[in-house]
Design goal:
mainly beta; Jelly Rolls; 5-stranded antiparallel β-sheet
């Protein structure tokens, strides 16, 4: 039977500007130390976003690493939305880890067709290492 080996939560509660159509990091975990190869990371990300003018869609992602260039571990599907709307976006994923000493994750968000900045009001990323 699998057991939860380690839990980490990264959270942002200070407003963060989403500059038009640029992907941004909303929340980051601290480093986790998997005890062996083959550990699975169960990931959940939540972002509360006020969209900017002309926004037509939002893409929320989970990436391995600490930047927007990290390995994508979730799906990246543009979900339709409306401009100037406050919504909560959720994403989840499972990442099977190789032989790594440390791993971190971020939840990111990106608007489509925005002509004005949006605002992230709150963001959380949760990771459970399962072995």
């Amino acid at each position: 039977m699998a057991e939860i080996l380690e839990v980490e939560v990264g959270r942002r509660t200070v407003a963060l500007a989403v500059v038009t159509t640029t992907e941004i990091v909303c929340a980051t975990t601290a480093p986790l130390a998997p005890p062996r190869s083959g550990i699975r990371a169960r990931l959940r990300g939540l972002v509360e976003l006020d969209t900017g003018a002309d926004t037509t869609a939002v893409t929320i992602r989970i990436r391995r690493g600490t930047t927007i260039t990290g390995t994508l571990v979730s799906e990246a599907i543009a979900e339709e939305t409306t401009a100037a709307l406050a919504e909560t976006w959720v994403v989840s994923a499972v990442d099977t880890l190789g032989d790594v000493a440390s791993v971190q994750y971020v939840v990111t968000i990106q608007a489509t067709a925005a002509s004005a900045n949006g605002t992230v009001d709150n963001a959380t990323i949760e990771v459970d290492l399962i072995g």
